């Protein structure tokens, strides 16, 4: 149910066409850039927007949105946009900093972070190429660990029919912004075996609904409780997905996972594991196949960030023998469970 880095692709699983995720081996890190060429947002406009009874809130919001789109180089052609403005103490100052989320439905979202400086908010970092944003929260843990929590939504067609809401956490530091957690909050995909040029027009549906809680009692943790289902329909229409009532349940399961913050590698992990076999093979994953990519020596300790058995895709494509891990050097790899022992 969890992936550190994801990108949408369409893949074949056996004879079935589904929407899956490509687990990328590169980090999604957004370094701090020079702020000299970026426009600032005035404290007055921000105060006006947050003054509920002000008759100029709409004008202030427009100024904030236009400045942010300029800073992010968003090509806006007067189409409808959604803007979310949040304040929070991101950089440890006494004054609140500013976060602005811009969404251009159906599939484009951007985030911009501003640092409070005197009577204005200065551009710190921007992120493009994410999904439309429905929710933004600032989360602080201690004096150094600062995060922004997002919920992003996508609802469209790509070979199959799907929609998803992603919950993501970004770490904010003086070096920039880094994605450190991503999970399905809600997910639904329908596809027909006929998409794979087969005569069989059976439709399959995957659904996942998760409750995601963030707690800082003791240490910062993310608790994900999910209900996953695989359903099937014999509807003959190979173009339009069946109605929900036409599906019958094939199998379902309830899952619960806990991820805790590991500051040494700046990631949320499920736990640690010891490599127990000599020259254990590491793998990369392209969304369909696990391909050998290297080896790890016996005795090395790795950080587990995903059990592939718990991913929604495993209801139709058995990946239960693999885990996703981060080495002590910060490299993301996949390992066979037979090559590791989970440490308590």
Q: Main sheet, how many strands, which sense, barrel?
A: 9 strands, antiparallel
What's the helical proportion of residues?
under 10%
> Total number of β-strand segments?
23
pLDDT < 50 runs, ≥5 residues = 3-26
What is the N-to-C order of secondary-structure elements (H for helix, E for strand)?
EEEEHHEEEEEEEEEEEEEEEEEEE
SSE-based structural type: mainly beta
**Terminal CA distance:** 22 Å
Task: Please count the helical segments.
Answer: 2
What share of residues are in beta strands?
over 45%
The average pLDDT value, as a whole number, equals 85
Q: Nearest-angstrom radius of gyration?
A: 22 Å
Dominant shape: globular
Describe this structure in words.
The protein is mainly beta and 344 residues long. Helix content is 7%, strand content 56%. Strand 15 (248-262) and strand 16 (267-269) form a beta hairpin. Helix 1 (43-50) crosses helix 2. Residues 3-26 have low confidence and may be disordered.
Defining key terms:
nine-stranded antiparallel sheet; 344 residues; 23 strands; disordered N terminus; mainly beta; five-stranded antiparallel sheet
